[in-house]
Description:
The chain is an alpha+beta fold and 103 residues long. It is 27% helix and 16% strand.
Amino acid sequence: MNISAVELEINIATALDVGTASVAQPRPDYPLVALQQLVRNAILHRNYETSYAPMRINWFTDRIEINNPGGPYGAVTRENFGAGVTDYRNPNLAVVMKNLGYV
Length: 103
C-alpha cells in the first residue's frame, strides 16, 4: 500500500490562527508527520499471513481510525500493551523500513 503525503494532507483541515502573531499561522488539526508514522506503523504490524483484507483509514469529523488485520502478537498482550514489551510479527519488513528511514 502506497499512501502519499498528498493523500493524507488532502484530509487535514487547516485553520489560520490570526491571534497574537503579526502573520497568520496555519494550525492543522492533525500533524502530517504523526499521520505518516501511524500509517507506517499499521503497515509494519499488519498480519499478512491470515488475511488479505486491506488496511483502512476512516476519517471522521472528530477522529481518525486506522484499522488493519492483526492484533497483539507474540510477547505483547492486551494487558502489557504500551508497557515497553515488544515483538516483531514482520521482522524482515521491520528491517527494510528501518533501513529506508521510515521507522
